[in-house]
Amino acid sequence: MIKKTYFVIGLLFLLITVGIYLLITKPSEEEKTYHRAALCYIIQHHDISADNEQSFGRVKNIIDYSVPDYAYHKPKVYPDFVHEVIQDYLALSNEQKTIAKSDYIKCDDLLKK
């Protein structure tokens, strides 16, 4: 009986730990929108090529420095998500890339999954 109780407590602890990990490492919908908006800004002002690190650095700078240091909540950068969105942009056709460069809303729509 005691072993069964320990097993249930251990399993519950494991599930809570996995849940917390997923909450910390995965962006919310609001954060995803913020990251896509930053990339759309970069798309409209710079050429995005296969060099992900330069594009990632630009997106990271926008996210890091768009909110003042004294702000209560500073947005977190999710590198995996940023790289994923950059790859999604690079996979678009030339026509879709032109549309993304011309309109923020359409850019966001094209980069949503």
List the helices and strands and how they pair.
Layout lengths: L1 H24 L3 H17 L6 H14 L13 H12 L3 H9 L1 H8 L2
Helix pairs in contact: 2-3, 2-4, 2-6, 3-4, 5-6
* Bulk shape: elongated
What fraction, in percent, of the residue positions are helical?
over 70%
What is the typical, i.e. mean, pLDDT?
A: 87
The total beta strand count reads: 0
Strand content: under 5%
Radius of gyration (Å) = 19 Å
Order of helices and strands: HHHHHH
The biggest sheet, with number of strands, parallel, antiparallel or mixed sense and barrel status, is: none
Q: What's the helix count? A: 6
Number of domains: 1
- Report the uncertain regions: none
Helix- and strand-based class?
mainly alpha
State the end-to-end distance.
48 Å
Could you characterize the architecture of this molecule?
The chain is mainly alpha-helical and 113 residues long. The protein has one domain. Helix content is 74%, strand content 0%. It starts with a helix and ends with a helix. 15% of the residues are buried. The model has no long low-confidence stretch (mean pLDDT 87). Keywords: Membrane, Transmembrane, Transmembrane helix.
